[in-house]
Design a protein that fits this description.
This protein is mainly alpha-helical. It has one domain. A two-stranded antiparallel sheet has the order 1-2. Helix 1 packs parallel to helix 3. It is globular and about 40 Å long.
Amino acid sequence: MHDSLYKAIQAYATDVCGKPIVYSPEAYPYFFLDANADGQAGLDEAKASNKYNAFTPRLVKAAFNYQFVEKDPGGSAHNGKYILQTLYDSMRDLSAKIAVDMQRLVRP
């Protein structure tokens, strides 16, 4: 579900914000403009001067939840239901503006 949220974030950023986004867990501020739109955070992209600058309120909420799950590796063991609900809710929110396949997903 984490990977599905990332794909939804990328689709939303491109389709709604008009600027592709990419994530790098090693480089602050974590979300960057995807200059070459290849979906990968290259060394030339993952730097503070290239931070993502087209956030909408909906996108910033989804990005926060994505980062929250990414940076808390024990979250799924300690409160897996909450983690899944957070991911699900973020995808549901993004689906108001883009096509997200929610058919096979059920909120825990």
